Amino acid sequence: MGNLFKKEEAVLLLNKLSDVYDIYAPMVFKGEGCFSDTDSIRYGKITSFDDIVWDKKSDYSFKEVLLPISDTILYFTEKEMKVPDPSEKKRIIFLRSCDLHALKRLDEIYLTNGAEDFYYKRARENTKLILMGCKKSFDSCFCVSMGTNQADNYDAYIKMDKESVYLEPKDEELKTLLEGTESEEASFEIDYVTDNIEKVTIPETLPEGIQDFPLWEEYAGRCVGCGRCNFVCPTCTCFTMQDVFYQDNQKAGERRRVWSSCQVDGFTDMAGNISFRKDQGARMRFKVLHKVYDYKKRFGYHMCVGCGRCEDVCPEYISYLACIHKLGEIKDGGNADE
User: Locate the 4Fe-4S ferredoxin-type domain: which residues (predicted)?
Assistant: First the structure.
């Protein structure tokens, strides 16, 4: 059972939640799209339920709320270092089923793949997750094929129409906050996608020498190495470190963790002028096989969650879906059926 709020009561609900949490959800950023006079849908801090975009997929994922694109991890002087104070408020993130599955991948990398990441853990422990249902499949989504169209690792479920807001909490802290609010008891089924237009079948095993197959050669000339596919992906976790020195005191500054990409120049550079995966075909190969093969071999499930954002964002119209289809059609010798 959950709580059904009329629109005017929902305003009071949001105000009550906002006293404790910063609330993030997909919203429209006017004029901030990739092309002139286009908008972008990405995660931002909402002040009204009407800010939330329900009927379109966000161009960027929830990831930048938990893992900012540029995140200061310490301040330093010539004598001491200091970790930034945590945010004064906790946060709530509204996200869809595929992104909840992506969060599981982030947890795997930052919390169990070696030592725990202090900064990610701190952010994660102060975050509540509210599931947004999907009434229909969006373009390029293939979550059903990836088994990510349903999720249960959320703290509450939200459903909204023109007249009301339905909130069904599982988390005890959220249940306590809802006590005393003006609402009706109600129960709604969660909106889950049961079928996508796009479907993929990922081979359980790949032939020997897949890294040298002709399949990857076409991407060497097409991919421009912009890294957009990685930056919109909710499961990519690569970053680099940057030290920034203040102009008024060159012995003081801050160290920042900044998103990086396996597709951009310099990502694999090492001392001695050594660089691995120099051409874009090799980089595409690494990304794709990591998402749907290497990660599963290690952790038991695919890294890709089927959100299709990489499919949507590529300026060269390189299809990740088409590449996955080709993997399934690989024949001995490295050829795929036309």
Answer: 212-244, 295-324
